[in-house]
Design brief:
Largest sheet: 9 strands, mixed
Radius of gyration: 26 Å
Number of strands: 21
Structural class: alpha/beta
Number of helices: 15
Helix content: 25-40%
Length: about 475
């Protein structure tokens, strides 16, 4: 509901001399100067347990309302019905230190884990609401926004930093930078942790959103190296094509040879454990910095989005950057085969047979099913590290989007232990996961191949061949692919 400024002024002129406006969508009242000094403020309010009951401010909201002699609560009462989850209202001029205040709806106060939705609803409500509030204040060109911790400072920080992210590196006209800060001192450690988590996610988003001519394999590797340069317990190895050749990664090289951009194998060692010789977690990420489909060319519509086909590599690399920033007490190795998949006279042709690092041959029946070729060699190389577990992330097939939509990430794993840990973590982070079947039935579809040991697509359809190499991986007790 949008309540005109003049109506608010007439109605509350006696009791609320400072109130400059009320808006559900955020337009500034007449006479208000954007970015005119001071900070923005985001405050939370809970829905009433009863339909007719009064809404309840968070602790920070209550404190601010007392600071302005109850004017915030009074303004809310005349600006329409109680705020629902994820909805906002903006007020101007309530306090000289905060020219603009956004109140955001947090839903039910005691919302916790929702078993039907497979996430912590309270945390997710905070993230979503704070993100909306911060974006509204960003539109006013206010350089600094203080954020109510809303009972969970980490979730509030994640919402603020994620919500304010935008890729505008190449635009002359950019939105002004906004710095979110914790309102008050309670929860400062949790807030900082949330900032680090969100900045890690934003690093992956940055890499995936950037144009493919700006994030080539070598530029990707150099960007990650620069991010990790300040950590003494991290070693980054940017392996050139000559090293890949000596490792006999024929499947990986077969994809890369169609492009003028040379392939890179990025290897990262984070040594955070008390004993650097302890078995590491190994993260493997598909790093196709642009995927045209090769000779099996993709449709032109939407092909620009294939600059993000290195999402797996972006995810595992940003995870290690985040682990280093948090100084996590464990050892991690990150492996990212980086290349482009392009059509040319040197590119893979349908029907070609290539040899993987472990000696098995693969028939390339569809050159657009290239990610599994990269990962075949990377996963074979991962065996060298005596890993506690291998976690592999990749954008391998649109069939997963057909199966699950955007609601969850599909997961294949041969370890119920590893699955249970990932599932529990996903409930806290809001990144929902769904376990997919890994039946022997699917393995037979890729091993029944006329020319080689394996085919890179299934006998009947593409949908069930994401895990091309279960036969190579059976020796590993703990393996997870998403």
């Amino acid at each position: 509901m949008l309540l005109p400024w003049r109506a608010v002024a007439r109605r509350l002129s006696r009791d609320l001399p400072r109130a400059c406006g009320c808006s559900a969508q955020g337009p500034s009242p007449r006479g208000y100067s954007r970015g005119a000094g001071g900070k923005g403020l985001v405050l939370g309010i809970y829905s009433s347990e009863k339909d007719e009951g009064a809404a309840q401010f968070t602790s920070a909201g209550d404190a601010f309302d007392r600071l302005v002699s109850g004017k915030l609560r009074e303004l809310l009462s005349v600006c329409g019905p109680p705020l629902k989850k994820g909805k906002t209202r903006m007020f101007h001029g309530l306090h000289q230190d905060f020219p603009s205040v956004v109140v955001v709806g947090l839903g039910k106060k005691n919302a916790g884990v929702n078993d039907q939705e497979n996430w912590n609803e309270g945390k997710e409500n905070i993230r979503a609401a704070v993100a909306v509030g911060c974006r509204q204040l960003q539109d006013l060109e206010i350089p600094c926004v203080e954020v109510d911790p809303c009972g969970d400072a980490q979730a509030a920080a994640e919402g603020a930093v994620l919500g304010l992210h935008e890729y505008n590196e190449l635009k002359q006209k950019k939105k002004p930078a906004v710095t979110p800060q914790l309102h008050g001192s309670a929860g400062s450690e949790a807030w900082q942790k949330g900032v680090i988590y969100a900045e890690g996610q934003n690093l992956a988003r940055y890499l995936m959103e950037a144009p493919a001519n700006y994030i080539t394999p070598i530029k990707f590797a150099e960007h990650i190296e620069q991010k990790l340069r300040s950590f003494s317990n991290v070693k980054v190895h940017i392996r050139p094509e000559s090293w890949i050749t000596t490792q006999q990664m024929g499947a990986f090289l077969s994809v890369a040879k169609g492009s003028a951009e040379p392939p890179i194998f990025l290897e990262i060692h984070y040594l955070g454990g008390a004993n650097t010789n302890d078995s590491p977690l190994v993260f493997v990420g598909k790093g196709v910095t642009f995927d045209s489909g090769g000779i099996s060319l993709k449709p032109s519509s939407g092909m620009d989005a294939m600059r993000a086909d290195m999402g797996g590599a972006a995810t595992i690399c940003s995870t290690i950057v985040t682990a280093a920033a948090l100084n996590l007490p464990l050892n991690i190795i990150g492996l990212a085969p980086l290349c482009e998949n392009m059509p040319s006279g040197k590119a893979n042709k349908p029907g070609d047979v290539v040899r993987a690092k472990n000696g098995k041959t693969i028939q390339v029946d569809n050159t657009d099913a290239e990610g599994r070729l990269l990962l075949a060699d990377a996963l074979c190389y991962a065996h060298d590290f005596n890993a506690r577990a291998i976690v592999n992330a990749a954008t391998l097939t649109g069939a997963m989007d057909v199966a699950l939509g955007s609601a969850a990430t599909g997961v294949f794993t041969n370890s119920s232990w590893l699955w249970s840990h990932l599932y529990e973590a996903s409930i806290l982070t809001g990144d929902r996961v769904w376990r997919m079947p890994l039946f022997e039935h699917y393995t037979k579809q890729v091993t029944d191949c006329p020319l080689a040991d394996l085919s890179n697509i299934g006998k009947y359809s593409r949908n069930n061949t994401i895990f091309l190499l279960p036969t190579e991986l059976e020796e590993h007790a703990q393996l997870l692919h998403s």
